[in-house]
Amino acid sequence: MPKFPIEREIAFALKDVSRMLATYADQQGRDFGISSAQWSVLVRLDRSEGLKQSELAELLDLQPISLTRLLDRLADNGLIERRADPNDRRANRLYLTPAARPMLEQLGELSKRLMETVLDGLGAESRERLARDLNVLKDNLRAAINRNAQPQTNKVLIS
């Protein structure tokens, strides 16, 4: 019988896997001169070009100043460009440059190899189940976060 509740062990395992995956991605990305954080920015933009910096910061759960530094490096390396938002003079929209496409292809191949290492020992059925279960966790967390973001009128303040 485990010493701690299984729910606690799952929470720790999820956090550990997330941290270790980022560390391993950083190690693997060094050959391309890219960090896992920069890699994440490129992949998100590949999925949704034209995001505002604020939208991307929220998606990546980054502070705007941290994202700005990442974007500056990527722009300096010719991988992204900022374009003025036609509807908001204060905002920029983010786009990949043509130079980013070959990098994303290489990173896609690297990602496949990386995830084969991570998922070694899990068959196709287990991988599909894991993906479904993780999506349930994401949905549960998204709903809880949205509920907590709603103004609470019945909160009791303890002084």
Automatic annotation (TrEMBL):
SUPFAM superfamilies: Winged helix' DNA-binding domain. Residues 65-145 form the Core-binding (CB) domain. Keywords: DNA integration, DNA-binding, Transcription, Transcription regulation. It holds the Pfam family MarR. SMART domains: HTH_MARR. InterPro entries: CB, HTH_MarR-typ, Tscrpt_reg_MarR-type_CS, WH-like_DNA-bd_sf, WH_DNA-bd_sf. GO terms for molecular function: DNA binding; DNA-binding transcription factor activity. PROSITE patterns: CB, HTH_MARR_1, HTH_MARR_2. GO terms for biological process: DNA integration. Residues 7-139 form the HTH marR-type domain. This is MarR family transcriptional regulator.
